[in-house]
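Changelog excerpt

This revision adds worked examples to the README so contributors can see how folded entries look when concatenated. The first example is reproduced verbatim below.
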Amino acid sequence: MSIATESLSEWAARLANGANRSVTITRRTLEADLRADLFLVLFAYAHDVVGIPREDIRQEGNVLSGRFDSLFGRCVIEYKKPGRLESPAERHGAAEQGIRYLKDPSIGADVVIITDGSTWGLLRDLSAGPEAGEQGWLDLGDGHLTAAHERFAWRPNSPETAERVLTLMATVVAAPVSGESLKARLGSGNPDALDCVSRMGVALHHRSRDGRTDSLRFHRCLSDRMSGTCRFLFVAFPVVRLAN
């Protein structure tokens, strides 16, 4: 069965089975190994099914609140050493770390998920509001008066839990507007950005006074690439160059 035709329940089964295999069969003892195992499923689902652009999927990023493990759009996933979340103290510490990520404007996350392969902790930032088409909710509690670990929904690994994880990931697909996300889209590591800058440089070099050659060439760039990167550069970059 192809990726495009798999149902949500089938993806959830793949994720739950992958976590179980990592913990009980291959007996992973390192956080990095668990992350590598689960990322195989999470990346394929986020990119190929949900449609999160590759540049909005990041691994191990340094931000104001620390170093996160994975970012899918606006969903942060933190991996812990297998078995670590069995400890109430470790669970509380992981929850505090996750809440710091939600409050960190440099990430722009609305969902934090924590897992050690056997247990999943899920927290949605209720102040962000529901996505378009998503059912609304009422926040009847005061997060400031609730212990960090009590703000998370803790669930054992299962296909049902995995389905909730994937559903949460799919509700926050838009990348946050931050320095890091702009760098991922427009930085030197993005070949589309380099291509567009190169084309614009040629167009600006050959433009005639009061001519429209540069605009026409930019339009051709957009038509050829059809990327959000090119469209952003078309609006922002030429203005700076021409002003100089």
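The second example, added in the same revision:
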Amino acid sequence: MNTLTIPSITIKTRTCGDISLEPVRMGKLKQFSDAVEPMIGEIMAMVDGAVDQTVITKLIRDHYDSALHLVTLLCPATKEQLDDMLLDEFVEVVGAAVEINTDFFVQSLLPAVLSKVGKLKSMLATMTGTMASSASLPTDTATDASVATP
């Protein structure tokens, strides 16, 4: 039987007022992805530094429900609690939610996946090299003694 060992992982959390946020859990990853997908263009525009009134207005106008749902996936606040927040409080909570998960995906998950892919490529190259050298082994080319040669 093999034992799966998971290295010690530090989970970063962030607090905004009374709300504690942490990276998305596996059980909520699909819902998280679904909530982020419709507003990814605006999020990426803000990440690229293109933050202006039109991006923020579009985010609020077109993606208010997705943003609320996203935050409820990441913290114990309900939609009603979020609706009662002042705008600057809500923006701080949304920013913290995006920041803490961006940190996880960019600083933790992506390097870990790339490392595993690198190891897999190395293993495959080794296996391919072993198979190639096995295939290139010389075969017995001796002629059959019962066959007469002229």
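Reviewer comment on example two: Residues 87-135 form the longest helix (49 residues). Helices lie at 29-36, 40-47, 53-74, 79-83, 87-135.
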